[in-house]
Specification:
3 helices, 45% strand
Length: 237
């Protein structure tokens, strides 16, 4: 009887030990899975530098071509320099240029995805950038450009954003964007420019814009081929 009791006790203890070990393995697996899911957002590759000229840095280190960019990475360009940043999905891209209106380098930051991964966000800390975003029917994500005070929602196509000490401006070559500043929300369309004076802080205004002007026409040269090859843009404004 005692021997049978000891055998039953041994079996119960063995089963308990096996259950505990299995539980530990399951817990570790869940933690690892959760950790990977969380880490993916902070370390996943969102874009890459497909072209650059002059002095360009990523996180204060000299950039290399096709360098991959993840969220919170910073890209900086110096005088007479530029960098093309292409997102890995939907063929959206931005070009960061040195701004003659600023004494400092131009800089942008790749921000975390928004809206469950459906919205790409770029923060233009300072300087000048152009953008090319395909029409909504040709992509599955949205695109935003932010500054210290402004959110630019890119609906489609091509334009520029400039953030200097004195003002923020948003100009459009083709397509449509929405610009939000505090309680002000305005739409900007082709051949229009939204301008906000940081010093006077007066209400932003919409002005005519000629993208073929001598200063800006050269900025769009890198995106014109994308415009031509997108057949859905034929006839669009």
């Amino acid at each position: 009887m005692d021997q049978q009791f000891e055998e039953e006790k041994f079996v119960k203890n063995k089963n308990l030990l096996v259950g505990v070990i299995a539980g530990v393995f399951l817990l570790v697996a869940l933690i690892s899975f959760t950790g990977c899911g969380t880490g993916a957002g902070s370390s996943s590759i969102l874009a890459k530098i497909t072209d650059f000229t002059g002095e360009v840095k990523v996180n204060s280190v000299a950039a290399v071509k096709d360098q991959q960019l993840k969220e919170n990475d910073s890209v900086e360009v110096g005088k007479d320099s530029m960098a093309t940043i292409s997102y890995l999905h939907d063929n959206s891209k931005v070009n960061l240029f040195y701004s003659e209106k600023n004494s400092a380098n131009s800089r942008l930051v790749i921000k975390p995805l928004k809206n469950d991964g459906k919205t790409f966000v770029v923060n233009l800390v300072s300087g000048l950038m152009t953008f090319f975003v395909p029409p909504v029917e040709n992509r599955s994500s949205n695109f935003e450009i932010t500054t210290d005070e402004v959110v630019v929602s890119i609906y489609q196509t091509m334009g520029r954003v400039e953030n200097t000490k004195a003002e923020i401006s948003v100009a459009l070559v083709r397509g449509k964007v929405g610009v939000s500043l505090a309680d002000s929300k305005l739409s900007v369309e082709a051949n229009q420019q939204w301008v906000y004076n940081k010093e006077t802080r007066t209400a932003p205004e919409i002005r005519p814009y000629d993208p073929a002007n001598a200063d800006d026409d050269k900025l769009y040269s890198r995106d014109k081929e994308s415009l031509k090859t997108d057949i859905n843009l034929e006839g669009r404004q």
